[in-house]
Design brief:
By secondary structure, this protein is mainly alpha-helical. The protein folds into 2 domains: 36 residues, no CATH class; 101 residues, no CATH class. Helix content is 50%, strand content 9%. The chain contains 6 helices and 6 strands. The strands form 3 sheets. A two-stranded antiparallel sheet has the order 1-4. The protein has a two-stranded antiparallel ribbon with strand order 2-3. A two-stranded antiparallel ribbon has the order 5-6. It is extended. The C terminus is likely disordered.
Length: 169
Amino acid sequence: MVYEWKIPKYSLPAQSAGEELERIERKHGRITPGNVLEESRPTGAVLHSLFEWNDSAAAEKFRLEQAREVIGNIAVVRMIEGRPTEPVRAFVNIVPADRERGYSSIVKVLSNREYAHQLLETALAEFQALRNKYAILVELAELFDVIDELQTKYSNEPAFPPVRNRQQP
């Protein structure tokens, strides 16, 4: 197989990483994060350089990941006619034009044209990623056609469409 990184952020060639994961799968019968980590511990291991081995730095990265999980796990429930609706994320990832990436409340995002546009772009990118991931499944062809139509509709518009009666949580 020919391998490439979806996001080219590693110094190790994707081909080397993919072949090493194949080796680990052959050895263990399947790939798990645990067996990849164990196989990568020796200094000379193919994937060794992709991991943070400094325990203090790794612990801080883990805590930051936990903070992201906390933020992403909070949801709001709207009450419509006294009944709760499906929960939606309370905070979403947004990049203000003059600031660094961070999270904003869904109410703030849906009330701000720029932020709402970013949220739509993010949703469409996630749909496209889903489409790419499952493109081989012909059973989903109709769904993929709808995704393509939405991509075309919103990528050809010079400005974000007007906010239409958005229901806020």
